[in-house]
Amino acid sequence: MPLRVFVAGATGVVGRHLLPELRRAGHHVTALARREDTAAGLRGVDGVVVADMMDPGALRRVVTEAAPDVVVHQASAFSDTDANAGMQRTARLRETGSRHLVEAAIEAGARRVVVQSMADAYVPNGHDVLDEEAPLWTEAPGYWGELVRSVAAMEETVLTHAEIDGVALRYGALYGPGTEYASDGSMHRRVCGSALPLVEDGIGLMSFTHVDDAAGAVLEVLDGVEPGAYNVVDNEPAESSEWLPTYARMGGGPAPLTLTPEQARAQLDWLTVHQLTEQRGATNFRFRETAGWRPVWPSWREGFAALFDLWPG
Ligand SMILES: NC(=O)c1ccc[n+]([C@@H]2O[C@H](COP(=O)([O-])OP(=O)(O)OC[C@H]3O[C@@H](n4cnc5c(N)ncnc54)[C@H](OP(=O)(O)O)[C@@H]3O)[C@@H](O)[C@H]2O)c1
After folding, report:
1. Whole-model pTM?
2. Where is each NAD-dependent epimerase/dehydratase domain found (predicted)?
3. CATH assignment at residue 116
C-alpha cells in the first residue's frame, strides 16, 4: 500500500539512496533538508521542505504540513571534517533532534518512526558476534561514550513511546558509493596513506553495511514489521586483520603496517584502537527471521570489490 513518507537526512549518503527507492515503490515522499542551498539539489520527490531538527517549532510545522504515515530519520553529522566534533554534533542530533522529530511525528498523526542507529555500540565482551539483546556501551570513554548514550536515549524515545510504532535500524560501518570507504573518501585516504595500521594480536571485529542495504532496510520496515531494534549488517563480521589488508589491496594502497599494542595506544586515538582490538561484530539473525530481509551485499568482500571495479577474491 502506498504510504506518505517523510525523510529527515534526505541529502545524506543513505538519504540519497533511499529517496528513489521509496518513489519506485510507489510511496509519496517528502524530503527534509537542513538548508535552502542543499534543498535545491533534491529532485524526483513529491515535496521538499527545509528545517533544522534542532529547531522544534520549524520541524513541527513542516512535518504537520507533510502529514506523513511514516517518519524516517537518517540525519547525522559524521561527515564533519573534525571527527570528534562530528561525533558530538551527531550525539546532540540523536538525543535532542530525534526527540523533536518524534514529537512532531506524533502531533502530525504519523503511526511509525524509523531511525538510523548503530550496531557497533555494544559492550565489547562475551561472544564474538552480538545480537540486539547485548547491552549498549553507555559507559564507554570519551566522545564514544557520549555518542552511545545519545543512541540509547534516541532508541528509548522511539521504541517506548505508546503513540507510535518505533523501529531502530542498527547499521554497521557504512560503506559504498559516497561514503568514507569510496575512493575519494577519508577511510581510503587513511588506508592508502598508511595511517591505519593493524595491531598485533588485535581481534577487533567489524560488521559492515552497504548503503544500498541501509536504504533497502527502510523499505522493509515501513509497515507490518514488528517495532523494535534490528541489526542491519552483512553476513560476514570480519576481523581487522582480514578486512583491512583486503581493503588496502583492492583500493590500491600499501599493505598495512603492524604495531604492538603499546605502540598503537601511543600513536592512535582511543576509538581506532578499540575498533582494531576489541570491538565485537553483530548478527543480522533477528532482522532476517522477523522481516525476511536479505542483504543485497551479503559480504563486504563483494562490496569492496565493486567499489573499485574489481572481481572479489
Ligand atoms: N551513519 C553512520 O553511522 C556513520 C558512522 C561513521 C561514519 N560514517 C560516515 O560518515 C559519512 C556520512 O554518512 P551519513 O549518511 O551518516 O551522513 P551524511 O551523508 O552526512 O548525511 C547526514 C544528513 O543529516 C542531515 N542533517 C545533519 N544535521 C541536521 C540537522 N540538524 N537537521 C536536519 N538534518 C540534518 C544532513 O543535512 P545537510 O546536508 O544539510 O548537512 C544530511 O542530509 C559517510 O562517509 C559514512 O561512511 C557514518
Report:
1. 0.96
2. 5-232
3. 3.40.50.720
